[in-house]
Design a protein that fits this description.
mainly alpha, about 150 residues, single chain, about 60% helix, de novo design (two linked rop proteins)
């Protein structure tokens, strides 16, 4: 069980991809600054932020599932922008396929997480407090042995 969202394999892969997208998009034409460049950077980063937010909300399965689904949607959006980058001849076919294959992997992991939120619920530590306000004792009836 991971202790931080940063320990999740899917987060590490998504973060690595977002950084790769950032570096690649530095080479896009200036006229794409507020269009393709901005959109592909935002959607790739949003995958990571949704994973982080969802993981912190994992004690609420519906919130967790919603955020993993949002992250998956952002991954799909990023793949669409990758396809535009290829179609505009900003990236090679090999790079397009490599990025899209890795985003497909991210999507599969996110889908599995969304479909199995119970695997990610935080462990609950149970404890009890003795009725007299003292420390928990192992006696079963509440009576103590000894002189009375």
């Amino acid at each position: 069980m991971s202790y931080s969202f940063k320990d999740l394999k899917v987060y590490k892969l998504a973060f690595s991809l977002a950084m790769e997208i950032f570096e690649i998009s530095k080479g896009f034409p200036k006229e794409e600054k507020y269009a393709l460049t901005d959109q592909i950077r935002r959607s790739s980063r949003s995958v990571c932020s949704n994973i982080a937010e969802g993981y912190r909300k994992r004690r609420y399965p519906k919130h967790f599932t919603s955020k993993m689904t949002d992250a998956d949607g952002e991954a799909s959006e990023t793949s669409t922008w990758i396809d535009f980058a290829f179609s505009c001849a900003y990236i090679s076919k090999d790079l397009q396929e490599s990025l899209n294959n890795r985003y497909d992997d991210v999507g599969k992991m996110l889908g599995s997480m969304a479909n199995n939120p119970d695997r990610f619920l935080p462990k609950v530590i149970e404890f009890s407090v003795a009725e007299d306000g003292g420390s928990d004792s192992s006696s079963s009836s509440g009576s103590s042995s000894g002189s009375g």
